[in-house]
Task: structure prediction
Amino acid sequence: MYRGLNITQLRDKIDNEGISPEEIFESTNKLAHQLQDEYNSFVTIIDKFKMKTTNKTLLSGICYGLKDNISTSNILTTSSSNILKDYIPVYDATVYKKLKNAGAVLVGKTVLDELAMGGTGTTAHTGIVRNPWDKNRMIGGSSAGSASAVALGIVPFAIGSDTGDSIRKPASFGGVVGFKPTYGRISRYGLFAFASSLDHIGTLTRNVHDAAAVVDIIKGLDPNDMTTLKDDNKNYVSSLENDIKGKKLFYIKEICDKKLYQDSNDEVMLKILDEFHKMLDKLRNQGFIIEEVSIDKQLLEALYPTYMSISCAEATSNNANLTGIQFGPRNDGSSYQEIMMKDRTLGFSELIKRRFILGSFILQKENQEKLFLNACRIRRLIVDKINELFKDYDGMILPASGSIAPKFDDSSEKLSEKYLILENHLVIGNFGGFPSITLPFTMIENMPVGINLTGRVKEDDLVLNMANYIEKVTGLSDIYSKVGDSNEV
Ligand code: GLN
Result:
């Protein structure tokens, strides 16, 4: 009954139609259970209505999902890993506390790729997450359950985390809006660290307005996270309608010039690029100035290896506390080394172990200078280049992906040109801590595709404002997959 409604529509039900938040919660909970077997959005579905009723906000009584790598006291928080499969935290993450204080109602903890590493939604200890638009396809990850819960119309918003693209890629594959604000805008206190210098918390919603509405509530300085920014004291919703005439955007030739892919027979990618350029023309007609810029291809090809070097190194160090001794199921052994060895061998999947090996290698004393510090230097070169462009331009616009959501049996073409750059440029947003948003802009083969807009650090309001305009031009606001409609409650 309340399926697919956005925050504004649900607000209206509660404020003007006399529907109680509890009634909406009951119906949402039922829908979450009904769609769980097919899509697997949740690790835990909350069955008891709980809402704080002090000061009323835009989110009072609004249901949402929270990624399962975000700490919730007394609620299982697994990070979708066997090593934490029975872990119940004793403290609340700041983002959760803020949502609770705003009266938002938690419906479930959402599935992620184990420990937020990976981008397929297939590595959680509780099973794969399916794409609402086509069950044979991935939703992408790592914020897989958050994206699918929103794309299925179960909740109007969900919280995710993004270290390389984990909010913005599944947003593209799932036809929803994924927003990662400036680094430090939202406190990471209580987010299980993956790569601290790249980790961000952000939102998945069905329109840009709702992204602004949620971030307005969860942003702000936090004494528990020394990397948080001073409050900007801005209300992002109120700047959504500012005039964008004359705002200047650039796109990168080396990523989206069709001529680069002349020999490719990847029809979907070519179609995406076509649609992208058509969209740019429409945006120009609405008053945006959009220009092509060129960036050294070598620098762009370094994005993925640089990301892997830095993120695996940081991940190895951050996750060194997962020994099975303090948290998670503990195995038998005659010494603590033996216990730890067993716990970590059994507790992590392939992908995680591979990344920890890579990370340990990169952090070894004799490799640090060449591998880790050089990666940090390349990161700096890339960020400097983008910041230089941001002196002239208000934002960077690119297709969020060169593909629609992959099928589960798709073999990846990891070394292709497209894989190196077109599929990995979203990490630029993490390297620089830039605010970055993906929103649906076209449908190809009945699957949604996202466009990505990245702006200057601290200009979250402008990014949302411009994205709001783009959304009007795409006409693809508030889409959600109605599959499973037969189960409608
Ligand atoms: N897909 C990227 C990875 O594999 C990004 C993950 C993320 O942003 N958490 O690490």
